[in-house]
Amino acid sequence: MRKILLGLAGLAALGIGGAVLAQQEATPSTETPPLPHQQWSFEGGPTKALFGTFDRAALQRGFQVYSEVCSQCHAMDLLHYRDLGPNGPGGGIGYTEDQVKAIAATPFVNGRQVTDGPNDQGEMFKRPARPYDKFVAPFDNPEQASATYSAVPPDLSLITKAREGGADYVYALLTGYKTPPKDFKPATPTSTYNEYFPGHQIAMPPPLTDDRVTYADGTKATVEQEAHDVVTFLTWASEPTQEDRKRTGAKVLIFLVVMTIGLYGAKRRIWADLH
User: Fold this and answer.
1) pTM, to two decimals
2) Strand 125-127 relative to strand 192-193: parallel, antiparallel, unpaired?
3) What DSSP element (H or E) covers 148?
4) Domain 54-240: CATH architecture, name and number where available
């Protein structure tokens, strides 16, 4: 009798396990694959702790992608136009002062201008931006953004630091719009499948396409190139003084090594007569 009961219990366990397995197979996987690591100039390879630098050409291409594409929805409230020039933190991204003035005076693709005032008549007015102004946001306030986009698009000033995986994650997200599996069911009418977004359901449609921008330097504008460039720019924006910090760190380490050698020599000389 005991053997019969054990056998029935085993069959029941197998049945339950099979049902669970079948349910798992029928449920779309929500696990995200590992992030593909990209080669970034600011990491500097094996010596990235000290010598990583930003590729100025990539920074300018990335700024172009942001200004022509991303700025339609996303603000960068922590950046000023002057930050792009030679007097900006870390020396900017390679633009001259005249170029910065021209960039500030030319509205981003959303066409918005700076709200200033009041004027002599006590009224607020619109004007072109100037180098000392912050990047013009695509909306006046979060309420307007929420009404326009159904949610407030995140500010991109610190996006590579705010997301686990940093630059690799943002790049993967921008290039992760793939053909959804057959069992994919959008949670909302605006949900789009993205391989690397948690849960694979993202409200933002694919922002990049091949030749979405025409690079001034003639670089071929593939999705991967556009993503790589704009992520380079966003990484710089999150810490414009990164290169200065690394140079300072290198100088400090060299000083400590020289000081250690000098102290060791002094110690040997002082204690030489006592041994």
Assistant:
1) 0.79
2) unpaired
3) helix 142-149
4) Orthogonal Bundle (1.10)
Residues with Cβ within 8 Å of residue 136, at least 6 apart in sequence: 107, 108, 110, 112, 113, 114, 129
Task: Identify the H or E element spanning 126.
Answer: strand 125-127
Q: Is 248 exposed, middle or buried (0-12, 13-18, 19+ CB in 10 A)?
A: exposed
Look at residue 44 in the predicted model and tell me its pLDDT.
64
Whole-Å CA distances, 255 to 48, 154, 249, 262: 20, 42, 10, 10
Report the alpha-carbon distance of residue 93 to residue 132 in Å, rounded: 16
pLDDT tens-digit map of 23-62: 333 334 567 889 999 999 988 655 444 567 899 999 999 9
Q: How far apart are CA 171 and CA 229, in angstroms?
A: 9
Find out whether 113 and 98 touch, Cβ atoms under 8 Å.
Answer: no
Instruction: Pull the structure tokens for residue 93.
Output: 């991204």
For the record, the structure tokens of 141 come out as 């306030």
Q: Are 101 and 179 in contact (CB under 8 A)?
A: no
Judge residue 222's burial from the number of C-beta atoms within 10 Å of its C-beta, 0-12 exposed, 13-18 middle, 19 or more buried: middle
* Residue pair 148/139 in contact by the 8 Å Cβ criterion: yes
Phi, psi dihedral angles at 81 (to 5 degrees): -60, -35
> Which amino acid, one-letter code, is at 118?
P
- What is the phi/psi pair of residue 48, to 5°? -60, -25
Query: What is the rounded average pLDDT of the residues 219-247?
Result: 91
The two tokens of residue 171 are 């790049």
Q: How far is CA 138 from the centre of its chain?
A: 19
* pLDDT digits 0-9 by tens, 83-119: 999 989 888 999 999 999 999 998 776 678 888 888 8
Distance CA 104, CA 170 (A): 26
- Round to whole Å and give the CA distance between 34 and 256: 39
